[in-house]
From TrEMBL:
<dbReference type="Pfam" id="PF04383">
    <property type="entry name" value="KilA-N"/>
</dbReference>
<feature type="domain" description="KilA-N">
    <location>
        <begin position="3"/>
        <end position="140"/>
    </location>
</feature>
<dbReference type="InterPro" id="IPR017880">
    <property type="entry name" value="KilA_N"/>
</dbReference>
<dbReference type="InterPro" id="IPR018004">
    <property type="entry name" value="KilA/APSES_HTH"/>
</dbReference>
<protein>
    <submittedName>
        <fullName>KilA-N domain-containing protein</fullName>
    </submittedName>
</protein>
């Protein structure tokens, strides 16, 4: 589900929608810089009928969208500049399979563009506005990253302390018996979070809840993860997002993520073991 955030750029309210792939910016809001909102659709149409715009969109789609229909996009380019050529964003999406633009209805409705494309659109509207838009967007991302770092630090601290008070017997009890890594029937219907769970822990969130019904209401499997596991999980999320952009299917992504998880976790655990041994040796010599 997308998450919407609002920024204000030169007294213009602009909506940013965080989608599964990346941030998308409402270019309907940006078009309001040039005229009132009632003419935003016309402004976007005029921008879309420009050959330079179509060239840019086509190249972007070919870089990030493996399902983009290049041949169909050529029909748009050939008509660029003609007085009778007034394409809509919906037509561009439907005929080419584009993902860089989309139209949202209802609340926060309008035409949204991937941030790369939105900045390009802003250039056509006002170069000055584009600079302020980029600056405000960067401020928002820095604010989000700062908050995420604080939350991550707190979670690592709490998770580490929580893990330290667990005995081996309790931890073994928490782990449900399963063969999810070998039997991939669950994968066809899996959500992205469970693909990561199985790649790292070896079982789904539901399997953990079923095995631990008393704990399920107040916590989840990630609350019992070690610092090393949380570190690997963060890396897996980044790798998975990139593979989604590349259009890789679930089975391929899961296989790669599982191998990454096993490899990174082994390295981190071994490094931690060596660090503990070195510390113990130092204490013995003191």
């Amino acid at each position: 589900m997308s998450k919407n955030k609002i920024i204000t750029v030169q007294n213009v309210t602009v909506t940013i929608s965080s989608e599964e792939l990346d941030d998308y910016i409402c270019i309907t809001d940006i078009a309001g810089v040039k005229s009132d909102q009632s003419r935003s659709a016309d402004i976007i149409r005029n921008w879309l009928r420009n050959r330079s715009t179509l060239e840019y969109l086509s190249v972007w789609e070919q870089l990030y969208n493996p399902k983009f229909k290049v041949f169909e996009s050529e029909h748009f380019k050939k008509q660029a500049g003609l007085l009778t050529f007034t394409p809509s964003v919906s037509e561009w999406i439907e005929q080419t399979g584009a993902v860089g633009l989309y139209v949202k209805r209802g609340r926060f409705g309008g035409t949204y563009a991937h941030k790369d494309i939105a900045f390009e659109f802003a250039s056509a509207i006002s170069p000055t506005f584009k600079l302020y838009l980029i600056k405000e967007f960067q401020r928002l991302k820095e604010e989000e990253n700062s908050k995420e770092r604080l939350e991550w630090t707190a979670k690592r601290f709490l998770s580490k302390n929580n893990y330290l008070i667990q005995t081996d017997a309790v931890k073994n009890y928490l782990i449900p018996k399963s063969n999810y890594k070998d039997n991939l029937e669950w994968l066809a219907y899996a959500k992205e979070a469970d693909i990561l769970n199985v790649a790292l822990f070896g079982f789904t969130a539901k399997a953990w809840r079923d095995a631990n019904p008393e704990m399920a209401g107040k916590s989840n499997v990630r609350d019992f993860a070690t610092v090393n596991e949380l570190t690997v999980l963060s890396n897996l999320e980044t790798h998975n997002a990139q593979m989604i952009r590349e259009g890789r299917d679930k089975k391929e992504r899961f296989t790669i993520l599982k191998d990454i998880a096993e490899y990174q976790l082994d390295i981190l655990n071994e490094a931690e073991k060596i660090k503990i041994e070195e510390k113990e040796e130092t204490e013995e010599t003191v």
